[in-house]
Design goal:
This protein is mainly β. It is built from no helices and 46 strands. Helices cover 0% and strands 41% of the residues. About 7% of the residues have low confidence.
Amino acid sequence: MRRSAIKSMFLLSSGIALAQSGGTFTVTGAMTTPRYGYTATLLNNGKVLIAGGESDFNLVGAGQYGFLAPQSVLATAELYDPVSGTFARTGDMTVPRSWHTATLLPDGRVLIAGGNSTPPPVIAGGNSTPPPAIPPNTAEIYDPSTGTFAATGNMISGHVCQQANLLFDGRVLIVGGSGASAAHAELYDPARGTFASAGADASVTSGGNTCQGSVSTVLSDGKVLIVWETASAEIFDPAAGSFTAAANLSSPQVFPPYGIDFNDGLPTATLLLNGKVLLAGGGNDSGIHANAELYDPSTGAFTAAGAMTTGRDGQTATLLPDGTVLMAGGYLYGPGDVTLASTELYDPTRDAFTPSGNMSTPRGGGQTATLLADGRVLIAGSPNSSIAELYNPRALAPPPALFSLSGDGQGQGAIWDATTGLVPSPVMPAVAGEILSMYTSGLSEGSVIPPQVSIGGSLAQILCFGDAPGWPGFFQVNFRVPNGIAPGSAVPVRLSYLGRSSNEVSISVQ
């Protein structure tokens, strides 16, 4: 079948935004266990995997210098179902973990790495957070098809509070965090199930030895921006396998006597649809930051952005499908530290923050915010509270959709060879290196953030994407068939955008 014969079916599956009140929060089901410092991962089936964390908090100290100390680290995990609005237990992790990372792999499994395995020791007096226990160097894989965790290769060194980024080639970059060797980044290869050194960081920072060592994000060109707590920044280039220094932040908060932006809680780093990165909030011993700035990959520079409506440390930042960013919760230092229930939205077109609705529960760090398949945001996590809630945007934005020859979004995909226009079939299967093309819905108009296309569990190289010519509301994606795919007449194909997965179709691969 040729491309011209399959165009008409696209009109049957266009995404339609559903009207919804904006800036409101509604309580949803409670987690089976109160937890904090856990991970939340949106799976391809639309459910959210909640794993690990700390629990059973007791108050240590009093007044401004008191803090909640965890008594246990959890190995338990659960799933949130947005359809029923409920949480249910799934298999346990192989070891207890808190302040670890969880990364959705191209084949739909989840890599869990590092973290604390025992509660951190309690230090009497002072106003500093207790240091983390020695982190394990173990990692494991969650398989949604079985609901179980299984060990994978160990990291070279232990990491806790690190960052994990899925690269365009399907590997996972682990960077920063606590531990003597944590300043040296690592790469996880899902095909081999092993970790390897990614080389030393370009900057010598204290960020390798604290639990707030870095924030990072994958840029639209596939490189990774890393910002350390000393206000220095660097770029990791997966193609070159090296780190290079980048410009420092434009407006560091000076903390005498060091004269640097030494953050006890770092800002959030969010890749915007225009390709710039929004850094906002954070704090040091002189106070909490309301300032924000933008990193522009085209110039390699940071510039001041509009300030938040309030200072925030430990907040979440979620890029919404309409291009705005939801900032939720966080701490605000002062006489008697305040945990915030307030939220605000950053609008890149106006470079401004505006208040949004309040959450039902104050949340000040260790919570998660997960963009769901329908465009709502699941927010959960707080010491000694299992309450979870949903942020309802102005419109519910459906996830991306792939089309099939049958018209029901299943089976043989409406995907064609970019040169011949022929659909890969058992008679003429696709081969490694071949350039394929398809239409999809659910991308963001004018965005420079590329979608991810998975074929047989491996990421394809995205060659170009944009408006589908002559088909308003649809987008065309051209991609290259990767090497190493197991041949078959029904090899699965998925598209992911802003962390949300499409339905699964199939093509024939030789």
